[in-house]
Amino acid sequence: MTTEHPTITRFRDVHAARGGTGRVVILPDSVHTAALAAEALGCEVGAIANSLLFDADGSPILILTSGAHRVDTDKVTATLGVDSLRRAKPEFVREHTGQVIGGVSPIGHPAPVPTYLDPWLRKYDEVWAAAGHPAAVFSTTYDELLAMTGATEIDVE
Q1: Residue 124: per-residue pLDDT
Q2: Spatial distance between the Cα atoms of 152 and 154, rounded to a whole number of angstroms
Q3: Per-residue pLDDT tens over the stretch 2-43
Q4: Are strands 86-87 and 127-130 parallel, antiparallel or unpaired?
Q5: Residue 45's pLDDT band (cuts 50, 70, 90)
Q6: φ, ψ dihedrals at 98, nearest 5°
Q7: Which residues, at least 6 apart from 24, have a Cβ–Cβ distance to it below 8 Å?
Q8: Cα gap 74→110, rounded to integer Å
Q9: Which of 3, 13, 64, 126 is the most buried (most CB within 10 A)?
């Protein structure tokens, strides 16, 4: 019997507590990019919700964006009214999410992280996001993801 990684178990508990209805899938290989996840799941890359943690003047900000998009940090910096927005370093990601880059889930962090959601994901009936580990993903809908995360919708491109 294989023991599940603790970050996946923690994700499952939070997912259930927040009313998540999708399924958690453990893939045979790490799917640390949207393209790899889409290929493994047989879906469009745009249906992958990347959980990207940014360092905004020392505070974490989580942006859930379509795998088909790049975050325009200048635009998002202006929209959010912060002085700077940088891709977070691995240590910062682990500190604020309890997870590693490539496996950051939209929920289940040690403390609440301000979260923003790319409305482009609304195009897809089914959206996939990381489930706390680089080889784990879960299915959801845009509306469920919005409700589970309490995110604010913002255009990121």
Answers
A1: 97
A2: 6
A3: 688 999 999 999 999 999 999 999 987 767 778 888 998 999
A4: unpaired
A5: very high
A6: 75, 10
A7: 8, 11, 12, 15, 131, 136, 137, 138
A8: 28
A9: 64
